Amino acid sequence: VISVGGTKTEFAFLRMDKGRLHGLDPATGKEVTGPEEIERIKNAAQMPTPKCTPQVPTGAVLVASMVRHFAKHFGCHKEALEGWEAVGMSWGFPHRVFRTSPSLAGGLTARVTLMTKDQAGFSRDLVGKDINVLFDREFRSQMGWSRPIAVANDTVMALHWFLDPERRRGHNRVGLFIN
C-alpha cells in the first residue's frame, strides 16, 4: 500500500491471511500483526512528500524519489516482492478516477487534475498523467519490478485498523469506498 499526501508518503507491505492482517517489517524482513505493530512499520517506512524545489524540480523526479524510498526499504526483500499481487495507492491530490479494465488492480487508475500544497509546482508536469503508468514505469526502471496498481481513496492506509480482528469484533462487515 502506498499513500501519497501533501505532507507525507507512507509505504506498507500488507497481506490478509485467515482474517488477520500481516505486515512486513522492512528492517527485519519478518512479518508482524496487530494494529500497533503495523502502524509502527508503516511509520518506519514513511517519508516527507517531496516539495517542488530546485532539488526536486519535476513531477518525474517526485515519482522517482518516492520509488527510490520504497526500494530502499523493501527492495532487499525479493521473495516478498515476488509474492506481492498488487499495489493499493491513495493519491491525496485532486484526480479523476477511470477504469482501464474490469479488474480492480491495474484497471482502476486516475489522472492528476491538480497538484496542491507544497507540490503545486508539479502541476505543469503531472496534470493529465496516468498515476498507474507513472509509478509502473518508475518501479520497472529502478527495481526491474512492478505490480498492477489500484488507485483508492485516503482510507487505504488505515485499513490495518479496520481489518484487525479485535476491531471487527461486533461488526460483521467493513466497507471500503473506492472513488
Structure keywords:
179 residues; alpha+beta; five-stranded mixed β-sheet; three-stranded antiparallel β-sheet; 10 strands; globular
Q: What would you say this structure looks like, in words?
A:
- This protein is of the alpha+beta class.
- The chain contains 7 helices and 10 strands.
- The chain has helices at 35-44, 59-74, 78-83, 123-126, 131-143, 159-163, 165-168, and strands at 2-4, 8-11, 14-17, 20-24, 31-33, 47-48, 87-91, 95-99, 108-112, 149-152.
- The strands form 3 sheets. Strands 6-2-1-7-10 form a 5-stranded mixed β-sheet, with helices on one face.
- α2 (59-74) crosses α5 (131-143).
- 31% of the residues are buried.
User: Which structural class is indicated by helix and strand composition?
Assistant: alpha+beta
Measured by DSSP, the beta-strand proportion falls in 15-25%
Helix tally equals 7
Shape: globular
The strand order across the widest sheet is 6-2-1-7-10
**Helix share, percent:** 25-40%
Order of helices and strands: EEEEEHEHHEEEHHEHH
**Cα-atom Rg, whole angstroms?**
16 Å
**Main pleated sheet:** 5 strands, mixed
* Total number of beta strands: 10
